[in-house]
């Protein structure tokens, strides 16, 4: 189901449930709806919040991973969020990693799925082909193990984004910034419990990337989901939810 998007000042976000905060960060071509299954499953016991990151609307000079981290810092401060479980997919994982490195005292747990930050293959590295629907369809389907997971609505949404020159320029700027900002030398400083949930068939951040994250991040655990590509929470929501629930509740009485 679709959830109400709230607006407060420059922020747009989903905010469902009560309790300990789960803050969910979407990817470069992501949307709030990417996390519907997580909201539905966890809103009973947690406060699930998804901010809409200003990937397509932020000023070009700020279009970078660091610019998105600044935005999340402002959002967290504005909403007075503390002791969070921070969960990021793809580019959202990259943002989550940098935020965690800066504010570990505010992150109780970190969850990454298909995260950039070490290596990624992506459409955003070069200028997306504007006006070529078939190309966009193929690229969107490429992110899923089962191409049928890429609904027409999702393909249409990405196609509309790539038809806008200003949005494309932001996409390219952020993607290139992400590729330049390799975190291999920094993530060894992460001290919070970390869970890596990866599609075994991920073509964007392949399994060796997950193993490298697992090797470099102390206190991390790695789970693979078979027949799953770059967005496990969309493609295998039940298995993703089961792993996430087990990790969050670990050590609780």
Extract low-pLDDT stretches. Answer: 123-127
In the CATH scheme, the class would be Alpha Beta
With helices defined by DSSP (H or I, 4 residues minimum), what is the helix count?
9
Under CATH, the homologous superfamily reads Alpha/Beta hydrolase fold, catalytic domain
Global Rg: 17 Å
Order of helices and strands: EEEHEHEHEHHHEHEHH
CATH topology: Rossmann fold
Helix % is 25-40%
Proportion of strand residues:
15-25%
Query: N- to C-terminal separation?
Result: 32 Å
The whole-number mean of residue pLDDT values reads 91
Query: Oligomeric status of the shown chains?
Result: single chain
- The CATH architecture comes to 3-Layer(aba) Sandwich
Largest sheet: 8 strands, mixed
Number of strands: 8
Q: Tell me the count of domains.
A: 1
Q: Describe the global form.
A: globular
Largest sheet, spatial ordering of strands: 1-2-4-3-5-6-7-8
Tell me the structural class. alpha/beta
Description:
By secondary structure, this protein is α/β, with parallel strands linked by helices. The protein has one domain: 3-Layer(aba) Sandwich (Rossmann fold). The chain has helices at residues 36-42, 65-79, 91-102, 133-141, 152-162, 165-180, 207-216, 232-235, 237-249, and strands at residues 6-8, 11-16, 21-25, 47-51, 84-89, 107-113, 194-199, 220-225. It has an eight-stranded mixed sheet with strand order 1-2-4-3-5-6-7-8, with helices on both faces. Residues 123-127 have low confidence and may be disordered.
In brief, what are we looking at here?
The protein is an alpha/beta fold. The chain has helices at 36-42, 65-79, 91-102, 133-141, 152-162, 165-180, 207-216, 232-235, 237-249; strands spanning 6-8, 11-16, 21-25, 47-51, 84-89, 107-113, 194-199, 220-225. The protein has an eight-stranded mixed beta sheet with strand order 1-2-4-3-5-6-7-8, with helices on both faces.
């Amino acid at each position: 189901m679709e959830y109400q998007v709230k607006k407060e000042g420059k922020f747009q976000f989903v905010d469902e449930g009560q309790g300990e905060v789960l803050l969910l960060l979407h990817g470069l071509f992501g949307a709030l709806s990417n996390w519907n299954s997580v909201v539905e499953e966890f809103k009973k016991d947690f406060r699930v919040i998804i901010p809409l990151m200003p990937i397509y609307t932020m000023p070009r000079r700020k279009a970078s991973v660091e610019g998105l981290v600044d935005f999340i810092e402002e959002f967290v401060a504005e909403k007075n969020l503390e002791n969070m479980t921070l969960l990021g997919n793809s580019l959202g994982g990259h943002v989550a990693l940098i935020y965690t490195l800066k504010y570990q005292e505010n992150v109780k747990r970190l969850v990454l799925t298909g995260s950039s930050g070490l290596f990624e293959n992506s459409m955003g590295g070069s200028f997306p082909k504007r006006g070529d629907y078939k190309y966009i369809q193929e690229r969107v389907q490429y992110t899923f193990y089962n191409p049928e997971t890429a609904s027409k609505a999702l393909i249409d949404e990405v196609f509309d984004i790539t038809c806008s020159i200003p949005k494309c320029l932001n996409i390219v700027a952020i993607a290139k910034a992400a590729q330049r900002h390799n975190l291999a030398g920094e993530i060894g400083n992460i001290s919070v419990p970390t869970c890596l949930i990866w599609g075994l068939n991920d073509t964007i951040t392949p399994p060796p990337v997950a193993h490298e994250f697992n090797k470099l991040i102390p206190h991390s655990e790695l789970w693979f989901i078979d027949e799953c590509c770059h967005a496990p929470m969309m493609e295998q929501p039940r298995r993703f939810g089961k792993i996430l629930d087990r990790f969050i509740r670990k050590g609780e009485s």
